[in-house]
Amino acid sequence: MSSLSTSASSLATARGVYTICPTPFHADGGLDLGSIATLVEFQIQAGVSGLAILGFLGEAHKLSNAERRAVTATFVKCAAGRVPVWVGVRALGLAGAIEQATEAAEAGAAAVFAAPLDMASDAVQFDYYKSLAAALNIPVVIHDFPDSFGTEIKAEVIARLGREGGVNFIKMEEPPVGQKISRIRDLAGESMRIFGGLGGVYFLEELQRGAVGTMTGFAFPEILVRIYDQFAAGDLAGAAATFDKYCPLIRYEFQPKIGLSLRKYVYRKRGVISSDAIRSPGMRIDPETERELEAVIARVGLDLNQRGALVIQ
After folding, report:
1. Model pTM?
2. What burial class does residue 234 get, using C-beta atoms within 10 Å of its C-beta: 0-12 exposed, 13-18 middle, 19+ buried?
3. CA distance linking residue 113 with residue 58, whole number of Å
4. What are the contacts of 234-242 at 24+ separation with CB within 8 A?
5. Distance between CA atoms of 300 and 291, rounded to whole angstroms?
6. pLDDT for 244-299, tens place per residue?
7. Which residues lie closer than 8 Å to 233 by C-beta, 6 or more apart?
8. At residue 9, does pLDDT exceed 60?
9. Is the peptide bond before 281 cis (omega within 30 degrees of 0)?
10. CA neighbor of 203 nearest in space, from 183, 227, 235, 181
């Protein structure tokens, strides 16, 4: 297992697999705080380096402010310092972002990952992230996902934030991911630590380009941990073989519009959460899709009904 202290000083060496966790709901749509406890225990058993909450997969945009606070507090309490908890932030302006991030920090979050401002210029984006970082006593992670946010953060702005803005982490999800990772590294050097994402579809290539890990919601995180551990140990052939073996499942699970439903279905079937309910708006999967998913899982040699984290060879 990749271990990591939650102290701010240790975050300078943050790396590995940070699972983006779904927010569990009961069948009636109410928060299921009890399932957060079982979800956290499962992730720790799987060997993840950290937890990321209240992103798209966490349905943060469907929660009230009080629910956001309850979810954050419960994840932090259940993690109990064993792994850091990073919290998503998205607001229309700096004041709202500072409010969300400050609440997360006060609840015990180790970092926040912040979406860019909508339709803002390069100069405004730089000032936004720099000001957010200056207002907090925990690190800020840039969330670079233009396909969902509709806003591109240029490599030059990212590098400048690393060198001058006090922002030294990015969750980078802009294809082609390899080229942008290389560009950021060329411009920023060691001042910007890059995590990949996009469901883990390009995880191996991200690591080869210099990413320090991934932040994604893949519902078999122990597979990603195995790939990372093999790569970090210098076993590139082993990491590639593991990645190639499970690529059909990684690909199938990371489907636009229904990825959240697929992942919640997997977690429910694995006994990690009590219900696969999602809040509206959101697309549910049908019985045929469930059968397809289960067939892919079986095809790569996994047992969906086995409880607890799997030992990945």
Report:
1. 0.93
2. exposed
3. 13
4. 236/208, 239/204, 239/207, 240/204, 242/312
5. 15
6. 999 999 999 999 999 999 999 999 999 999 999 999 999 999 999 999 999 999 99
7. none
8. no
9. yes
10. 227
